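Run log // design_07
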């Protein structure tokens, strides 16, 4: 997702698959290609402790990202120093909240992953359309 919480890519997997194992698939799945990084201004990716593995760091570096991986309490400590900044973790929670407003997606009844992926993609498209109306 981007810096405002709008979903940019979507990968469906089982609930028992760790996030860092699907990182490469997520980075290859964006609908809109990202611009090329300019020299001296690389792309940054913020992640939580769930991505603190050598494989995940290598995957991020291979895709041209600078990894910013914080441990679980680091954002709360940073908040105490500067109350005007908010944690970046709220973006993921905001996106999940927007997806939870689609009642069909709350409980997965679809047996085929392709059908569920289609519903999620449609929901993400509606979210992007609504946010574009608000933002632009």
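design_07 sequence
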């Amino acid at each position: 997702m981007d810096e405002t919480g709008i979903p940019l890519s979507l990968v469906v997997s089982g609930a028992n698959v760790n996030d860092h194992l699907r990182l490469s698939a997520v980075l290859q799945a964006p609908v809109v290609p990202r611009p090329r990084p300019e020299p001296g201004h690389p792309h940054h990716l913020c992640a939580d402790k769930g991505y603190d593995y050598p494989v995940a760091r290598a995957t991020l570096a291979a895709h041209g990202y600078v990894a910013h991986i914080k441990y679980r309490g680091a954002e709360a400590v940073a908040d105490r120093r500067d109350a005007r900044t908010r944690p970046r973790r709220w973006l993921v929670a905001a996106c999940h909240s927007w997806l939870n407003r689609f009642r069909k997606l709350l409980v997965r009844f679809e047996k085929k992953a392709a059908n569920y992926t289609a519903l999620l993609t449609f929901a993400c498209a509606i979210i992007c359309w609504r946010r574009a109306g608000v933002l632009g």
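The mean pLDDT is 78.
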